[in-house]
Input
Amino acid sequence: MKGIGVSPGISIGRACVIRKKEAVLTGILLKDEADIRLEIEKYDNAVTASIKEIEAIIGNEKLLLRPESIAILETQIEFLGDPQIKSNVVEKIKGDKKSVHDSLVEVIRDTVELFKNMQDEYLSARSSDIQDIGNRILKQLNVSVQGGQGDQPDGRIAQSGTKKFELGTILIAEDITPSDTITMDPTHIIGFATQTGGSTSHAAIIARSRGIPAVVGCGEGLTIIADNDLLILDGGNGLVLVNPDPDRVAEYQAKKAAYAAQSDRLTALKDMAACTMDGEIIQLMGNISQVEDLEQVFDKGGEGVGLLRTELFFMGSPSFPTEEEQFEFYKKIALRSGNKPVTIRTLDIGGDKQLPYFELPAEQNPFLGYRAIRISLDKPELFIAQLKAILRASAFGNCKILFPMISNIQELRLAKSILAIAKSELSAENKAYDPAIETGIMIEIPSAALIADLLAKEVDFFSIGTNDLCQYTLAIDRMNEKVKDLYDPFHPGLLRLISYVIEQGHKNNIPVALCGELAADPMATLLLLGMGLKEFSMSAAAIPLIKNSIHNKRMSKAKEVFKKVMEMDNSKDITTYLQEVNQ
Amino acid sequence: MITKDYIILSPEGIHARPATTLIRLTKKFGSAFHLKKGDTVIRLNSMLNILALAAKNGETISVIIEGEDEAEAAIAIDEFFTEQLKNL
Output
């Protein structure tokens, strides 16, 4: 049976079919105004209790909720307090004299129908959110009526946290609500399949983040499954196999083992150093823009921040952020990183990055124009505010300063003299900072790469930005459809520049990092190691892959590969060769 | 009363998460907020109604704000549609 695979992984287990029982209407009619008031009051109390219940789930640290689960629970709080739902319920209580229970059941049923029938796939998937909050309120109403734990209004599994399932259960249901997925016990429930739902349903998102294999949207076919049927669930390919023969089971057991080995290997790597087979230790860092990205970096085993881009923070501000506002932002990241390095790049706007409150005149060649350090040096008051904010954050962690788009030595000296002013102002204001803060530059303009020997004597580190370096070296605008195929990070010219910068770093005893896309490309790992690169910085998601790649490499081999590549005269030969040696 | 038009710049339109953020934002102000798309006007306080409006990427909607703190509210709404929305 084919559905939509929404959460990868393979599960083999026994089916448990959740049958939906329609909520039963009581048919009770209200007698007088006092009854009506009481029923409305019951509704309000049930809503308040339901919101408290969700807040308790959010506050429960034992559940280790991920940010996406919390965001979904927060939308549920807004759904619960929805004045439109309330006014629909109140209308039925007042107008039709129906009990709050019956009124709510009808309102939820109608609303769920309404959303289900919407053409839009996303909105249609919201019907399970509405069912979910309806169930919650009904449960609270029942609690208050019976003075105890109420029965599930429609036989759903909202109480799966307390209800025990057999080990190795695969749940089969018409639909599964987000709450079900959040409280699901993954040691007993190893997967689920539903008739309805799409990849944007909240249950799907949570299943992914909790690593529970899931297939949704299987349709009516799913009804042939009975309790205790043997099932194979392939969440990556969206397959549900019912009572498969032993050969099939064996085949999927092998697949499951392979999948587990792969993801185990990557997870197991998390706390291991990135070390080659012959013992060379490499540092893997994260490129981030905001505090949330930092969690991801540490989650994936990154060892610090190789590049904090400050543009997004500036873009998210209604006007130029003040020194104080910037300080708070940098401090948060410094504190969260402890003693691990945080390399903060000063503002890199212009080119394709604009600020809403800072108008830059249209330019013929924005990438060759007024951008990055050129703006900072032209507007020293803005530059000083940013430098002071970074310096103050350095009192709370291991911060470093990185200047973007340096093209000659005068710019570097000017930037450093402004940094000295920022330091003396802070000293005069009696504000703490790290006086020995490390200062480095981006190498992303060919002229800077070519004078790396001179620049290295005046900075504490280099960071090579391969994306810009590539576009400036090859004179290729990668956004231009007509020429973007000529963009080629394995061009021998670019590789020579990178290797020269790394070599000059070593000669002058300063560390060199690489923070462009090339760092995250496993095909380039061996070559970059051969060049002597010791620090790779990339998006959090790429860290496990590159770490795995480094674990399989030998420095002796890397040096040999580097030597060979440097003898080749075109990128096609280079990439073919790199693919071969990576086999 | 302040009325402002916005083109929605978010691939998924105003889905559940932005709707939640938007409702929470309006609760900080005393003003009354309404959303208008085409001929439909809804009070900006209900998830149900906001989602049913089905405001998609590229569509234009109007926000109508009325109350004593409408000027500050308009600034916050402005920031929401021009900055926050694309990150939600």
